[in-house]
Structure formats: structure tokens, C-alpha cells
Backbone:
């Protein structure tokens, strides 16, 4: 019998059986009336997840494709943009903007640091403003989640568009698109939206759409105007063959999330983050990601310096069937990361912690054994007394 | 009980239950060893479908995204390209190339005509050569399938890259990438590959890759070099979060197709096309697509001039649960199209014909009743005597 598998990574994330079942329905046509009725329902509810009155555009692509759409549709060669990065995905914003010929001012923080609102505000003043500011709400490579409200507050009023990679944060931690003045907010299906990977979504403000009307960068498949025109048809249509099965799954997942409400989702993720951090600390390991409630997406953990964290990840996978991930880029070999967004409960966390404990002990690391599970459960709490 | 549904369109196409089941497996991670082993197997087998030694690049995107990748990676603004179009998807090549600033010479045939090799050769001479020639192997909007071998033969030797949209033809009708000298051949998952939509694939010749090294058009998500580097890792990797569930399905579908062999697939599609055309003619309807074996992808049928073909499609859907499609662009309202690629057998064809017969009769059209099913079955043939 094959080993039972557990997925505890920050994307892809586990998919609820109801969503899997929807993705496996016999194929239907994307111009048929039932599909288009489903799309109408979906486009009506999606903006609630962004807390916005803006349109949310749906693309069949990885999150990077949607990030690229933000640059290609709002920027022209030579446009001056400010990228604040503190990890792998912040660097990606800078790489995309460079490819499109933007004049990129790159405020580069050490990986694991939290970009600072005052510094970003000062840099923007020093630059005399910018066409756009590109931010990473949740830096999945380090576990850091920005204080996006404060940061956007510093940028707002400068005239710069605010483009946000919220791929791993949307529907996991609070994000108020309209109240915070965010022009473009990108997410993906396989994070807190609990779906398989393959879809990405972008909210676009009126200012972002106006910029798209002027931007000269070439684009076709990721062109916002083309997609918006199709989505605004009545009933909504698709500009290009959409990933029908994944979108049927997304429809179910959105129902599940909004059924409980966004606040419940945020609270659940806060508690999962607390549980994970408490377990890690009880084991005597050092947190790499911040020990704070906002860091509710993924917990990054330093592995003992004499161990290669990639080998730890592989050992967990081989001996326990539990998949977490190691470090990316300059953090490769130094950290492991446990994801806790989407369809995750506290027993996914205790499973990941127990398998980590076992793998580290097997490798001869000096860690506290037998403490992590209980610490995680206590930190999670549930407020429901046993009667 | 909801009405039973039948999908008989040229994309999306019906998905075999084995493929659906693979797409609905609990999620796994794309950096895990089992996923990467599956990728290795997949990338080893995919080129057989193209009949090529070239790499086949896999993108999470609609076919249009892969077509765009062909232009963005091989062309720079000002490059002179020849587009031969005779329908909706040929026009798309021209639109993409225009967006990327190419100098587009557009040899535009009437929709439904078959682009002619001699004319294309003459045009190319008149132009003094071209950077690339953009062709549509199977024009899904009209049902026409090019004599690609002859056409490519005229272009080969001129120094022009040959870029082919084979989205609805690959694995349905013969296509020999290397023998015919095709530099870029694009297809999609939801056509003859029998998968849900959401993936597209592109074979790239050494000449195409060399052009990609020189092309200045901006691209990031659809950049060939980035994807090639990831795919050529050992074991293969993904440049960006891939549509894992769809790729697990593709792995199963490719096994199914290659298990029977490509020649069996071509023969099956030829017979399905014959069956469909025989049924249409037995009903007394006029074919819009050519009455020839090569037109094995989709059969386009003129509807009686006093009927709106879109209404016929809707009526079939409403009264029979059978989904075929109408015309696109200038053919809207004038034709209906029955698809027969992928996981289709002759009883899908007889079902579509029977429902079409019923819808036309209900609408008062003068058609021959009761002849189509038998004509289709006889034209399909199976050579297996009842003992």
C-alpha cells in the first residue's frame, strides 16, 4: 500500500474533497448557459474576498502570470517604479519590471526583514514620486507579512499606483483593497483559496484601468481590456478557453470560504500560526519568521546549523509521507517552512511538527521531544469545553 | 434529476474517466520526488506526439498564451512575418503579431477556404522572404485542415521560421514536426489530448530557440528560456507553480493515446469525420467544411438560411442536453459545428446527429428524417463481423 501523504506547504495547499469532486465533473462547455451562470455567481462574489468594488479578473495562469499582467498592463518602458523586496517573491516583482523596461528603483531588504513604511515613504519622496510601487504582502519565502495598511497609507496620495502580490495572503490575513487604496491585488487559486494551482486573479482599480489604457507594453493573453470585456458581458464570458474544471472548483471553494465569512478565515489562520510557532518553540527550535499574529501564512524555522534543511525535508517525506518545504534562494539549506493557509486544521500542524521532530531526532539534532503537539494544541485553543 | 449531458464540441472535448480521476487526486507538491518523476516520464513521451526530437514546453495557459509565446520569443518589433489566415484562429495569429509590433503581411482567405501552398510560396518570394510564417493547421472555426506537409515544403528553405497553430489537430490528424521542418508547433490540453482545458504545449526547434536568444520582445511567464531551463533540470522542474492536477491528468491521457499508437488515433479520427459527414449528407444538409478525410477535427454544417444556427444550438442543448457549437465571427448564425477529436466514439456522433435532426425538425426545417444514424454507422465501419 502506498504511504499516506500529508501536504503542509504554503502552496499548493490541501484541496477540500468537495472542491476536488467539482473539478472532476464530466467536462462542460464554457459557452454553455450553465457555465456562464456559474461565472456570473462567481464574479459577483469574488470581490468580497478582496473587500473591493473593483473588478476581479480571472486568468488561467500561475500567479507569476498575473503579476506580469499587472506590469504589462500598467507600465511602459522607462516608467519609474519602486520595488520593496525582502525575499524571493519581492525579487520577482523587480525581475518582471526590469524585463518590461521599467526604470526600477529597488529598495532591497535582507531576506527575512520586514520592509518599513517610513523608509518606503522617504524613498518615494527622494525619487520625486513613482509611476507604481510594487509590494509583496506575504513573502512566502521568509514568512514575513507586511503591515500593508500602514505601508499603503504612506504611498497613497503620492500618485503612485500600488501593485500588491497577495498570492499567499488573500483570504488568509486581513486585506482591504478599497479602504487601503490598493490598485492591483494579485492572488492564486492554490493558496488560501484551497483550489488546485492553475488560476490567478487580479483586482483592478479605476486608476489601474486608466493606466492600462495608456501603457504601451505588448500583451495579448494577459491583456486586461480583453479579459474585462469578456467578463463584463451579460452573462459573463471568457476571453480565451478557461481552465473550466479548476473554475468549477473555485466556485465551490469561494462558497465554503464566504459561508463561514472572511473574519472566521482570518481568525482561523491567526490561530494556526500561533499553534505552529508554539510547537516550534516547544521543540527548542528557532523561528526564522516573525513571532507575531500577522505572520499567519507560513512559519519558517531555522534548522540546526550542522544540518542541511533540504535533507530534513526529504527525510520527512521519505520516512513519514509528510511534505513541508525548505528554503528558496539564499535560504536554501538553512530553513524549513510549514504552510498553514487554506484547507488546514490544527492536526495538519501537529502532524507536520511531529514528523519534523522525528526527522530532526533521527538526524541526531538536540531537540526537546514530546512537547510540540501539546503546545500547538494549547496555543490553537478552541474555547469549546468538554462537557 | 438533471438532464444527462453530452459534449460534442471541438474543445473542450469529453475527458475520459481515468483522466478525470487523476485530476481529482489529493494535491501533491510540484517539487516532490513523485511529481518530478512523473514529469520526467511525461517529457520523455510528449515529443512522440509531435514526431519530433525537439523539446516540448509545457505552460499553464490557454492555447492563445502558447501562440503568444511563439511570437514573443521569436519576434522583435519590425520583424516581417507572413500570416495566412482563413478563419477566426488565423486572424488571431495576425492580431498577436500586430500587438508585438511585427510588420504583418496578411494573406487573408475567405473563411472556409483552404490556404494554397503555391500562393503562399509566391507571396513569400514577392516579399523577398520573411522572418516567420504563421499557419493554422486546423482552423477550428471552419473545419478546414491544411495540407501542412505541402505548405511547409514551400516555405522550407526560404529561411523563414514556420510557426504552426496545431491546437485542434495535434494527435488527431498526421503532423510530422521534424520531417516537415516545423519550428514551433502549439497545442492545448482540451482538444485531441482529451484533458480539461488549462494547459498548452509548444515544440521548439533549434532554429526557434536561436531566434529566442535574439528576440527583444518582453516576456516573463511565457519566456521559453526560463521554462526550458526548468524542464531540462534532472529530474525536470517547473519554472512557476504548474497546474498540477491537470498535468497528472495529461500524464494519464498521453499513456492512453500512445498505448494505442498515433496511427490508430489518426485512423479513428478519419473514420469519425467520415461518419459525421455521411450523417449530415443523409439528412440532406450542406457541409460547410470540406468533404475530405483530412477534415477530421470538426464538421461544419450550413443550417437552412431561414434559421439562426445559434438558436439551433441552444434548442439542442435545451431539449436534448446535447452541446455542439455554432459559428464564430462572420459565421455566427450560419453554421453549426460538431467536434470529433479526443475521447469521442461513433455514438457521440450519432447522438449529436440525432439531436440536430430533432432540433431542425422541431424548427420546421425540411430535412430527411431517420437516415443520419445508419449512414454514420455505415461510414464509420468497424470491420468486425457479428459471428
Residues:
Amino acid at each position: 500500500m502506498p504511504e499516506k501523504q500529508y501536504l503542509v506547504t504554503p502552496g499548493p495547499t490541501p484541496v477540500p474533497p468537495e472542491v476536488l469532486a467539482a473539478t472532476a465533473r464530466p467536462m462542460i462547455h464554457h459557452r454553455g448557459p450553465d457555465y456562464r451562470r456559474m461565472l456570473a455567481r462567481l464574479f459577483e462574489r469574488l470581490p468580497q474576498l478582496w473587500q473591493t468594488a473593483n473588478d476581479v479578473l480571472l486568468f488561467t495562469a500561475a500567479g507569476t502570470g498575473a503579476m506580469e499582467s499587472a506590469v504589462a498592463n500598467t507600465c511602459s518602458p522607462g516608467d519609474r517604479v519602486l520595488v520593496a523586496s525582502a525575499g524571493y517573491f519581492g525579487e520577482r516583482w523587480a525581475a518582471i519590471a526590469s524585463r518590461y523596461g521599467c526604470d526600477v528603483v529597488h529598495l532591497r531588504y535582507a531576506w527575512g526583514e520586514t520592509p518599513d513604511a517610513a523608509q518606503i515613504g522617504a524613498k518615494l519622496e527622494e525619487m520625486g514620486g513613482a509611476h507604481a510601487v510594487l509590494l509583496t504582502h506575504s513573502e512566502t519565502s521568509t514568512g514575513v507579512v507586511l503591515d500593508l495598511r500602514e505601508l499603503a497609507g504612506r504611498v497613497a496620495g503620492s500618485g503612485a499606483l500600488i501593485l500588491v502580490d497577495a498570492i499567499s495572503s488573500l483570504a488568509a490575513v486581513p486585506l482591504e483593497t478599497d479602504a487601503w487604496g490598493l490598485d492591483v491585488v494579485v492572488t492564486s487559486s492554490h493558496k488560501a483559496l484551497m483550489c488546485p494551482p492553475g488560476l490567478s486573479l487580479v483586482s483592478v482599480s479605476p486608476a489601474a484601468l486608466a493606466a492600462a489604457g495608456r501603457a504601451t507594453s505588448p500583451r495579448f493573453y494577459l491583456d486586461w481590456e480583453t479579459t474585462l470585456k469578456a467578463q463584463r458581458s451579460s452573462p459573463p464570458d471568457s476571453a480565451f478557453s478557461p481552465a473550466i474544471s479548476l473554475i468549477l472548483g473555485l466556485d465551490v471553494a469561494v462558497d465554503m470560504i464566504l459561508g463561514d465569512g472572511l473574519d472566521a478565515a482570518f481568525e482561523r489562520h491567526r490561530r494556526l500560526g500561533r499553534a505552529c510557532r508554539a510547537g516550534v518553540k516547544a521543540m527548542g527550535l528557532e523561528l526564522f519568521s516573525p513571532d507575531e499574529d500577522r505572520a499567519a501564512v507560513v512559519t519558517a524555522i531555522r534548522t540546526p546549523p550542522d544540518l542541511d534543511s533540504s535533507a530534513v525535508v526529504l527525510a520527512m517525506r521519505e520516512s513519514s509521507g509528510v511534505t513541508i518545504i525548505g528554503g528558496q534562494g539564499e535560504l536554501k539549506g538553512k530553513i524549513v517552512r510549514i504552510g498553514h493557509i487554506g484547507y488546514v486544521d490544527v492536526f495538519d500542524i501537529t502532524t507536520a511538527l511531529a514528523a519534523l521532530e522525528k526527522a530532526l531526532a533521527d538526524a541526531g539534532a538536540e531537540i526537546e521531544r514530546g512537547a510540540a503537539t501539546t503546545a500547538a494544541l494549547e496555543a490553537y485553543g478552541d474555547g469549546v469545553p468538554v462537557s
Remarks:
- The mean pLDDT of chain A is 97.
- Chain A has two domains: 17-260, 261-380.
- Chain A touches chain B through 56 residues (CB under 8 Å).
